[in-house]
Design goal:
By secondary structure, this protein is mostly helical. The protein contains 15 helices and three strands.
Length: 391
């Protein structure tokens, strides 16, 4: 004889339409004794997501996009209970778990609504496709989950985060410029030191990967900005527009720089766009969608150009410094080290994504938006006038 759970799942999860959800929810609402098993089944669905390459943040992001914030909270509850099974978790998981949304109360606002929301969530979890893994799944061998941190890494990242947070908060462009420039210098030195240390110790030769959400609206412009930041940090970025994220491939220090800098530049760009848009509205302008799209496209394109110039100059300066310190009889400088790392990143990205396609980008149609976006990118001061993003 089928259990209530099996009957509800047969009605709601394996048939299309709201009628099946209503039938399943009615069965579950009338069977409070099935609540524990209902949650256990949900944990199984979450576990399948890990096996398909998904991470906690990926799951919550997609649930929020496809359903709503309430469903994202339900997913967070399942994730939190499922990961208690593992004594060790892969890198990046702890920070993602700390950022999970609040879990709504069980059975609220009523048993039928609660069961209906859970079944809609389960239906979505069942359809998750396999994605390229960006790290070991939970429960992997201990040695695959742990990596000794680089010397001074926590303190360095703390300083960089503090500088970027101040740059985002200030209302003075000159102050934001100075703070972001200082953060760039720290990132560049940290990345160069990591590369040289790895070359001397024959460590960290294998690139890793991370996923960064690219959310609507204006996701194309945001993806272009992320690609520019990734390229400047000697990483490769592959955007999955259907699932709303970009996978970034690179060495760990560079992945951290991409995550921190992309987030900060997006915050700074959005703030600048809001200020520019307010000025446009004060002048009587009403169409804002095309202005925002053009603004962010120009912001991303301009930053991409400046980042590329800054990286080239920073690399040349760092190579000259390393050559002078090492001496002619010791080594050939920094460039061969970086070239080897670039090759490793390219090979890893091609193995993860053997088939990629390019996408046609809709051009900007608003001259004012483009002009203001270009100016905002210039104010971000991401060029080689300082040491740049990285070496």
């Amino acid at each position: 004889m089928e259990s209530v759970i099996d009957q509800a799942f047969a009605a709601a999860l394996y048939t299309e339409g709201d009628a099946g959800l209503d039938t399943g929810a009615s069965l579950l609402a009338a069977a409070p004794q099935a609540d524990a098993e209902l949650v256990r089944r949900g944990e199984e669905f979450v576990r399948r997501a890990w096996e398909r390459g998904w991470l906690p943040a990926d799951v919550v992001r997609l649930v929020r996009r496809e359903l709503d914030e309430h469903a994202a909270g339900l997913a967070a509850g399942l994730i939190a209970s499922e990961v208690r099974r593992y004594p060790q978790l892969p890198p990046r998981w702890r920070s993602q778990l700390d950022e999970l949304p609040a879990v709504p109360p069980t059975g609220r606002p009523d048993r039928f609504s609660y069961a209906s929301a859970l079944l809609a969530l389960y239906r979505l979890l069942l359809t998750l496709p396999a994605v390229e893994p960006v790290g070991p799944p939970p429960g992997a061998a201990r040695e695959a989950l742990t990596r000794p941190p680089a010397a001074g890494e926590p303190r360095m990242l703390t300083r960089i985060r503090a500088l970027l947070a101040k740059a985002e908060a200030t209302g003075y462009p000159e102050e934001a410029e100075a703070l972001t420039t200082k953060a760039q210098e720290l990132m560049a030195r940290h990345s160069i030191d990591e590369a040289l240390l790895a070359a001397r110790t024959h460590g960290d030769r294998t690139p890793g990967a991370c996923r960064i959400g690219v959310d609507a609206p204006y996701e194309t412009a945001k993806a272009i900005l992320l690609d520019a930041v990734a390229s400047a940090n000697r990483c490769r970025a592959v955007w999955n527009s259907d699932l709303g994220f970009t996978t970034v491939v690179g060495f760990e220090a560079d992945l951290e720089a991409v995550e921190l800098l992309h987030t900060s530049l997006l915050v700074q760009g959005t703030a600048a766009m809001t200020r520019a848009e307010a000025g446009q509205r004060a002048g009587g302008r009403k169409r804002t969608k095309t202005f925002r799209q053009s603004f962010l496209m120009a912001y991303a394109q301009r930053l991409g150009s400046r980042l590329a110039d800054g990286t080239a100059r920073a690399t040349a300066e760092a190579d000259a410094e390393s050559g002078a310190e090492a001496g002619a009889a010791v080594g050939a400088g920094l460039l061969p080290v970086l070239a080897a790392r670039d090759l490793a990143v390219t090979e890893t990205a091609e193995q993860m994504f053997p088939r990629t396609t390019t996408t046609r980008v809709r051009g900007a149609t608003d001259l004012d938006g483009w002009t203001h976006g270009t100016a905002a990118a210039d104010r971000a001061r991401m060029s080689g006038e300082t040491r740049g993003i990285r070496g």
